Amino acid sequence: MLLMFIALSLPILSQEPVPPAIKRNFTVVTAYEELVPFLQSLDEHSDMLTVNIIGQSVKGKNLYGLMFSSSRFGKDRSKIRVLIFAQQHGNEQSGKEGALLLASELIKPENRYLFDKIDLALVPQVNPDGAEYNQRPNAHTMDLNRNHVILTEPEIQAVHALFNEYLFEVTLDVHEYFPYGETWEEYGYRKNFDVTIGSVTNPNVSGKIKDLSDNHYLPYIFNYWTKRGFSSFVYCPGGPPKLSYIRHSTFDINDGRQSLGIQNTFSFIQEGMNGTDSFLENLRHRSEGQMAGMRGLLEYVYLNIDKIKTLVASERKKLISGPVGQEVSIQSEHVANGQKLSIPLVNYKTGTDTTVIVNDYRPVVRSIHDVTRPVGYLIPRQSAELAEWAKRQYLTITTFEPKRNHTIEQYLITAIDSIDFERDTIVNPQVEVREIINFRSSDYWFIPANQLKCNLIVLALEPKSMLGLITYPQYAHLLKKGENYPVLRVVPK
Fold first, then answer.
1. From the CB of residue 478, how many other CB atoms can be counted at a distance below 10 Å?
2. 329 located within any domain
3. Do 233 and 193 form a contact (C-beta atoms < 8 A)?
4. How large is the angle between the packed helices 32-45 and 93-106, nearest 10 degrees?
5. Residue 88: CA atoms inside 13 Å, Cβ hemisphere, count?
6. Which terminus of the chain, N or C, has less C-beta within 10 A?
7. Statement: residue 8 has pLDDT above 60
8. What is the reported pTM?
9. Burial of 403 (0-12, 13-18, 19+ CB in 10 A)
């Protein structure tokens, strides 16, 4: 009887775990209470997967990182490290479901070859609290994809802690886009792509990485999706045409793509299409499209590992050892370059497809104000908030020892004007630069610029930066007309 029991049990134990959404034919989304045991079953089933807790949500739910590797994760330097994370926005369900579909595929024996070259960290759900109520923000009502600079939320702190531990060369942030709304309905047409993809657009990111992204990876993944029956397009918010311009996303570094891309990472955002009235609408197709994009990225990385690893290593080295005085763009704008965009749309009333030529198309980001890269910045020791921010960003912070060839500069805020930033109005201070003669170094902490996040440091701490700390309510008090800006610049004489 015992032998018969064992024999009958073996097929059951060998069965591959089935994602909860598939079990219920995508009639419901996967709840957190279902996600946890499913991940545990994946871990138990595969010797190449370890499921780690990488952090916790505001309400104490565990955040899980699925670490796929054929060896000790992150230890084999011949491999390339890839990070994919989904559902920062709780009401964007297909990213999570697509990630769970991907995980169930990757544990199959026929896919083991990928991990001869790749160590993959897959985070299927960054925002479990928001997902519980199908709401965009987390339990602090914070949009997590606008938190990557100030890092106040535990969920985003967990993502960055994971990134900083392994310094992934390739990252993908998975979302959904919403093609509906009154203005598009009035226009009569709307976007209708199963999936969109966007590369890094901040002007301070390596041009070589942008070139590989736009001219090599994007054509590859568009073709990959087409072969599998999914429509796709470049991620281009804005519009409708004739009513508003269309651009290539944002150059802001407070999201999951650009905050990692500013470190010269091969980084992307992927957005599947929302349902019209319900997040369950067409959920299977939407989730499978998301999964195909994630799988396509892994296939591309596998085929181009040497090119990507060499490029990222070289461009990151330039960040760390870049010369003092190098120009860093802190204010930019989206501009046209004469190119017309042919965008496929669908008719709201008839459901028929059409193609519209977008005349006001702005695919280029142009710098409108630069500063020179300093030796570093000095933050007041009495400003605990700035020191805590630097620690959250894993920045090197040291005491400061002035050298004879150093000059200490301070900004005087002479006026506070405003400037347009992607159809929003933000502060634009006018400043005068003054040299400080009497200076007590013991009153300050020093943040050197020669580290991987050098461009992030400049963008965050410069008072005229469109992407600076002072654009967030928590730090707005640092900017006062007629007073000195508290952060100092260390520059060579």
1. 19
2. no
3. yes
4. 20
5. 28
6. N
7. no
8. 0.95
9. exposed
29: left (phi over 0), alpha (psi -120 to 50) or beta: beta
Supply 115's token pair.
């991990």
Task: Mark whether 301 and 391 lie in a shared domain.
Answer: no
Tokens of 43: 């871990």
Q: CB of 93 within 8 A of CB of 279?
A: yes
Domain match, 296 and 419 both = no
The DSSP-derived string for 265-312 is -EEEEEEEEPPSS-TTTTHHHHHHHHHHHHHHHHHHHHHTHHHHHHHH
If 0-12 CB within 10 Å is exposed, 13-18 middle and 19+ buried, where does residue 369 land?
middle
Is the domain of 279 the same as that of 202?
yes
Residues ≥6 apart with Cβ < 8 Å to 322? 373, 450, 454
How confident is the model over 370-428, as pLDDT tens digits?
999 999 999 999 999 999 999 999 999 999 988 888 999 999 999 999 999 998 999 99
Q: Is the dihedral of CA 91, 92, 98, 103 positive or negative?
A: negative
Question: Is 421 domain-assigned?
Answer: yes
| Domain total in the chain | 2
Strands 444-448 and 170-177: unpaired
Kindly write down the DSSP assignment for every residue of 446-478, as one continuous string.
EEES-STTHHHHHHHH-TT-TTSGGGSGGGGGG
Q: Identify the bridge partners of residue 418 per DSSP, sorted by sequence position.
A: 427
H or E element, residue 170: strand 170-177
> Prior bond to 237 cis, omega within 30?
no
Please report, for the domain that includes residue 295, its CATH number: 3.40.630.10
